[in-house]
Amino acid sequence: MYFPLSIILCLLLHLSVPALSDSNPLLNKFCGGDNNNYSDNSTYQSNINQLFSSLITNSTTNGFAAGTVGTVPNLVSGLVLCRGDTNSSFCSSCLSTALENALQLCPYNRAATIYYDYCLLKFSNQQFISSTDNPLQIINYSTANVTSNPVRFDQIVADLISNASAWASYNSTRRFAIAEATNFSQQYPVIYGLVQCTADFTGSECQSCLQTLIDAKPLYFQGSEGGRLMGVRCNFRYEVYTFYSGQPTVKLDATAVAVPPAPLLEPTGSSGKKARTTVIAIAVAIPAFIVCLLASIFGFCIWKKKRPFRKVLVKYNFESDDIGGADSLLLDLSTLKTATNNFNESNKLGEGGFGAVYKGSLPNGDIAVKRLSQSSGQGLGELKNELVLVAKLQHKNLVRVLGVCLEEQEKLLVYEYLPNRSLDTFLLNPEKKAELNWRRRSTIINGVARGLQYLHEDSQLRIIHRDLKASNILLDADMTPKISDFGLARLFSVDQTVDVTKQVVGTFGYMAPEYAMHGLYSIKSDVFSFGILLLEIITGKRNNGFWESNEAEDLLSFAWENWTAGTVPQLVDPTLQHCPLNEIVRCVHIALLCVQDNPADRPKMSEVVIMLSSNTMSLKAPFRPPFCITNAGSESNLYLQVNHNQGSGSSRPSDMSGHVSQNEVSITELDAR
């Protein structure tokens, strides 16, 4: 069998790593891109050694240190963290081993993160110290499940970790706490927990970081005897055996944790007759009440149906931005049927995952009517979501909602009509594509960026779109872009940075890796989708259909290979004539920054808008994007390694490729769009 040289080198590197103590296993490692290497005896290497010599020494105080050495392009940022129950000598030894193995497992890489059971170490050529982002990188859980009352077990674990998080956040200068819950059961008399943040976090930052992990717990290990979630900035772990040293700072009596009420049981004994009589009376009264209630509802529906439909005034004004009034959003079904010629096929503009869109004509202007399919179980929820969100948003790069109709089983949402339909109808049509000269494409890029900036930072609401793609960018008569389809959008509070969903929905090829694999979404998820869209506009190629070409395995690979080879002109859509190459190169650079693997490395949309409008602003060098498969046949760069182990305290190291086997990936439900 033939083995590529790269695989042989990886095996040799594994063999050269010193054996690690079983009591402090290597959990995982993450290396920077191969094309961002430094050379031996270089300034960058010297800065790494200088920085970590200082950090390891400074960490003896409270187990944490962070800092930066050098200037760009040889700037090195670093962070070290030891578990709160380690002493200074063990901490120093663990970090020294971590640095040694970081340099061996990630040879000459400008970025590396190493996780051990008792310590972690990270360095990068990007300034990350001031960021509070905590990308989830380690998931361990026991494959042994709790067999007796697992729901209550999970509830006690959640309370235990929450109480420990509060203590670590507001009572510990090291942002560390250990906790015990007692009296759960004879099988599990004690449940042990541990939480920790980096010591530079404020109390609220630590609490927010840990709460994000706690919210993510049900996605990964419900009913497991043990588990841990780890990022660079915070982590937690729980087990049914003791795994730390020292006395617990938080104690919880499991019998005091609230549980759902027990089902009503029939009483027995000499006093049971009276109780049985009460139960029988209740059993008779409740069904009788329900029957009366249903009869009243049925009678009301019959009475309502006999009344003539109220003629709702169509009070919207196409020249006005005031669509906030309730009356202006209520549209009559008969009016919309007349406008669309009873939803005639000749008026159909297109069809999406939840139904068709029709063009309609009213005396005061044209409209677009989204008619949700009656067979769509999710349609009504998406319609309400879209109405609530879009009706409150006012921006020239967001589509305007004009009204809603919910009559006779119909679910209709009415928008302003945009004659040029969606961006993908131009990009995927060889004849119409030529109409998109660089000036128009640049206008579309800037408009979409400003629309996303408004959603993320400038509106009274913070909106995460979650399904940004070419088919959801509509174009008006002047080719002004307008972001549409907010059915999957989510509302964030002002200080919220990330959320977790159990059901991942959206479109393959546009999803950020942390969202596609683990349901974690934020404003940086939309930034990733914008980067894909930007590359599609430049290349005129669709990311999801890129496999049809022989140029590369996917659009990100195609872009990265040409970027590193200095052949950016080969990326440009052949239909573009006489376009300014310097603007194209800058846009490709920005797109690659938007699709970085780590969300913390992606810019915010306000930063993207500035990058697009300024030709003098310097841009940092991008790392290789995720899911990027090179022609050499290297493995996909997966965002997160998921380890299943019999004991969550002894995770095996990942292999050098970072590949996740079939039975190591959590199942995610994806809805086609």
Q: CATH topology of the largest domain, what is it called? A: Transferase(Phosphotransferase), domain 1
Query: Kindly state the mean pLDDT as a whole number?
Result: 77
Spans where pLDDT lies below 50 across 5 or more residues: 1-22, 260-275, 303-327, 628-673
Name of the top-level CATH class of the largest domain = Mainly Alpha
| Helix-and-strand structural type | alpha+beta
- In the residues, how many domains can be counted? 4
Give the second-level CATH assignment, the architecture of the largest domain.
Orthogonal Bundle
| Cα radius of gyration in angstroms | 29 Å
Percentage of residues in DSSP E strands: 15-25%
GO biological process, one term: response to stress
Pfam family, one: PK_Tyr_Ser-Thr
Membrane topology: Single-pass membrane protein
Subcellular location: Membrane
